[in-house]
Amino acid sequence: MVNIYLLLLAGLLLLFISGKYLVDSSVVISKLLRIPRMIIGLTVVAFGTSAPELLVSIQAALAGYSEIAIGNVVGSNISNILLVLAITALIFPIPVPATSVKQDWPMMMFVSILLYIFTLNGWLTRTEGIIFIGLLAGYLAFSVVKARRVNHTQERKETEASMKWWVAGIIFLISCAGLAFGADLLVSNVAIIAEEFGISQRVISVTMVAVGTSIPELATSVIAALKKETDISVGNIIGSNIMNILSVLGVTTLIRPIKVNAEISRFDIPWMLGISLLLLLLMLPASRSRITRWEGSFMIMIYLLYIYFIF
């Protein structure tokens, strides 16, 4: 049994390291291609930070563990707000740009409600996956067009890459392989642990697996907060949640339709919707356009309450 836990930890570690280097190498390649920094953030980095969730969900769906496939995404979205955002706010209060309230949050809420509606019949089908992919394409196109209107003079000065293109290419390929192998280790051993202790795949996926796949976002946000880099804001977390639903579940359902546990659609997704509404209240002008340390502490308490109700 000890070997199973070691393999589980190895899977989480592989996901974390591979996810980090996937993002780093992707950014270098994008800079070499002279892609503006804002567009890199909207596309390359967003996809890179969602790569652990994507690989875990695909692996789980192919292995027949559908509860892990969707529970991973829902739990990750919950932990992104109540853990990643909260811990970051405890270190350094997070500024809330107007675009997060007017553009990003409504999109996140819309796709979250759509996910809830799609899961009511107990399945996520390929047709619904195609709808998610279509919405993703439209959202990215809109974001890129909007970003191009911004003055990129400063960005052009920052396009020098930190490594040669062939080094970045090799790191990118190794990172992809690491993500695939890490996802396989995580999913297979989580399933064994769940069966051994009589814990449902749903519970372990919305907690342990979800937090594990959110580690890249947590590490990035904490490091940015320690450096007091205010450009890392709530918008990054909202973007990650949008990407998790549209890209992760969209791609996964195209490969194989996902059977949805009734508890996920009746309990976990409504919690995700409620937490999204809570985030809106924290972002409103009444909270002085920033998420404070007190509000971060409150969000962690809400997460502990969620865990209590699950177990």
Uncertain parts: 153-157
H/E topology pattern: HHHHEHEHHHHHHEHEH
Structural shape? globular
Neighbour order of strands in the largest sheet: 1-4
- Kindly report how far apart the N and C termini lie: 22 Å
Strands, count? 4
Overall pLDDT: 84
Largest sheet: 2 strands, antiparallel
Number of discrete domains: 1
- List the total number of helices: 13
In the CATH hierarchy, the third-tier topology is known as A middle domain of Talin 1
Radius of gyration from the alpha-carbon trace, in angstroms: 19 Å
Give me the CATH superfamily. NCX, central ion-binding region
CATH top level assignment:
Mainly Alpha
How does CATH name the architecture? Up-down Bundle
Describe this structure in words.
There is one protein chain. About 2% of the residues have low confidence. The two termini are 22 Å apart. Helix content is 81%, strand content 3%. The radius of gyration is 19 Å and the shape is globular. It has 13 helices and four strands. With 311 residues, it is mostly helical. The chain has a single domain, classed as Up-down Bundle (A middle domain of Talin 1). 45% of the residues are buried. The strands form two sheets. Strands 1-4 form a two-stranded antiparallel sheet. A two-stranded antiparallel ribbon has the order 2-3. Helix 1 runs antiparallel to helix 2 and helix 1 runs antiparallel to helix 8.
